Amino acid sequence: MTGVDDGDDATARASIAHHLHGVAANAAEDGHPALVEAAAAEHTAREEHGRLEGNTPQFVYGSAQQDAIKAGQDAMFGRGPREAWEQAKQRMEVVGRWLAAHGHQTEGVTK
């Protein structure tokens, strides 16, 4: 694997799986079976080919950014520990490295 160690790979894969699970859960709750199927197809593509398809990389990175921003706001306003913010920033960086190592764009991506 290029540019990502085993620990980062596991962290990135867990973050991506968490994102795809959230998409599928929200789609199922809102009654959108096609989106549930699309999330499952993305999960399969990642597992079988090590890549994500379409706009999914941007959404995954944007989701990691949003998690880091929320954790930072929580820490800033006393609603959460600074450690949670540090961990969220680190996960965002790991996801970015994983995406870049697999040929996905992360520059200029925002959710």
Radius of gyration: 14 Å
Give a quick account of the main beta sheet: strands, pairing sense, barrel closure.
Answer: none
What structural class is derived from the secondary structure elements?
mainly alpha
Order of helices and strands: HHHH
Per the principal axes of the C-alpha atoms, what is the gross shape? globular
What does the average pLDDT come to?
A: 89
Percent of residues in helices:
over 70%
Number of helices: 4
Poorly predicted spans: none
Total DSSP E strands: 0
Query: What portion of residues belong to β-strands?
Result: under 5%
Distance from N terminus to C terminus (CA atoms, Å) equals: 27 Å
Mind explaining what this structure looks like?
With 111 residues, this protein is an all-alpha fold. Helices cover 74% and strands 0% of the residues. The longest helix has 24 residues, at 6-29. It starts with 5 loop residues before the first helix and ends in a 10-residue tail after the last helix.
Key features of this structure:
111 residues, mainly alpha
Write the layout of secondary structure elements.
Layout: H1 6-29, H2 33-49, H3 56-76, H4 82-101
Helix pairs in contact: 1-2, 1-4, 3-4
Short synopsis of the structure:
The protein is mostly helical. The protein contains four helices and no strands.
